[in-house]
């Protein structure tokens, strides 16, 4: 395997670690604040971090086309979060989370296969195993008949998955040169969308210092995950980067197990095993 492919895989897995830890921090923060509030504030923190990093490093400006793709990525990501949070607020995580996560991995995978051709046979075998891992890790349990028949629930899951999948595609299309500016542009677009929602709800509620620490950690880790994904997609194939970083639910679950003493279900342990098998196949 070429050095660039190895680095791309490493960045993809590190992106999953960052996003998984970000979701854990953000999810814990939403226990005391609304999900839209946490999303808006965490995205703002991430944008401030990116802006300081850009100025500190003197990062080269991205091309106009890259900035446009960055803005589209931000809007798509915000759309995905809105769909996910709307679905989860109804208490139906068992179908929303796994369906959206699998679709988010599937869309860029199919796109890359159409535009870049098929990957190696062993890598291709790892893809369905990785999608099975995402489903098992994300799912909180069996789905009831009511859940399966809810058209609104399915719509929110599809909206979330499509938003995240299109985010991956747009970030990859933006290219790696000047990617910090591209990510900053994405953040500006998502903040604008969430800001409009916050205005309709009467503004931003005050947060305790402890809450702001959790929200800041969420924003910093999410931004780091975005940057790592952008580097993984730039160095390697989009489908491999998207599939690896989509394993982030496993990190969230493991942190909940270690820090909150939550127990993994039988299907989640199956997801852990499937994820490890998928990583081995994709890396071979």
Automatic annotation (TrEMBL):
Species this chain originates from: Desulfocurvibacter africanus subsp. africanus str. Walvis Bay
What are the record keywords, sorted?
Membrane, Transmembrane, Transmembrane helix
Q: Name one GO cellular component term.
A: membrane
Question: Is the Transmembrane keyword given for this protein?
Answer: yes
Q: What are the residue boundaries of the EamA domain, all occurrences included?
A: 154-283
User: Which Pfam families does this UniProt record tie to the protein?
Assistant: EamA
Q: Which domain of life is it from?
A: Bacteria
Listed SUPFAM superfamilies: Multidrug resistance efflux transporter EmrE (SSF103481)
Q: Where are the transmembrane segments?
A: 32-55, 67-88, 95-114, 120-142, 154-174, 180-200, 212-232, 238-260
Which InterPro entries does the annotation name?
EamA_dom (IPR000620), EmrE-like (IPR037185)
Coiled-coil parts of chain: none
The protein in question is named EamA domain-containing protein
Keyword Membrane appears in the UniProt entry: yes
């Amino acid at each position: 395997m070429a050095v660039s492919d190895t680095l791309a895989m490493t960045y993809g897995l590190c992106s999953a670690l960052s996003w998984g830890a970000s979701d854990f921090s953000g999810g814990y923060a939403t226990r005391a604040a609304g999900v839209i509030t946490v999303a808006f504030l965490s995205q703002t923190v991430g944008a401030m971090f990116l802006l300081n990093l850009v100025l500190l490093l003197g990062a080269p400006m991205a091309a106009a086309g890259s900035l446009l793709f960055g803005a589209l990525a931000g809007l798509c990501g915000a759309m995905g979060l809105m769909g996910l949070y709307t679905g989860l607020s109804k208490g139906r995580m068992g179908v929303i989370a796994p369906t959206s996560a699998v679709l988010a991995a599937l869309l860029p995978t199919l796109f890359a296969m159409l535009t870049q051709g098929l990957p190696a046979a062993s890598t291709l075998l790892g893809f369905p195993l990785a999608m099975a891992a995402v489903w098992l890790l994300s799912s909180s349990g069996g789905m009831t008949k009511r859940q399966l028949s809810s058209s609104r629930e399915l719509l929110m899951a599809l909206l979330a998955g499509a938003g995240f999948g299109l985010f991956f595609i747009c970030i990859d299309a933006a290219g790696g040169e000047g990617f910090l500016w591209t990510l900053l542009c994405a953040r500006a677009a998502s903040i604008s969308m969430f800001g409009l929602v916050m205005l309709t709800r009467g503004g931003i509620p005050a947060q305790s210092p402890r809450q702001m620490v959790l929200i800041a950690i969420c924003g910093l880790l999410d931004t780091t995950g975005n940057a790592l994904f952008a580097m993984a997609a730039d160095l390697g194939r989009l489908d491999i980067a998207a599939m690896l970083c989509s394993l982030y639910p496993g990190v969230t679950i493991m942190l909940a197990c270690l820090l909150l003493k939550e127990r993994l279900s039988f299907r989640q342990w199956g997801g852990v095993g499937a994820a490890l098998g998928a990583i081995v196949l994709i890396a071979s």
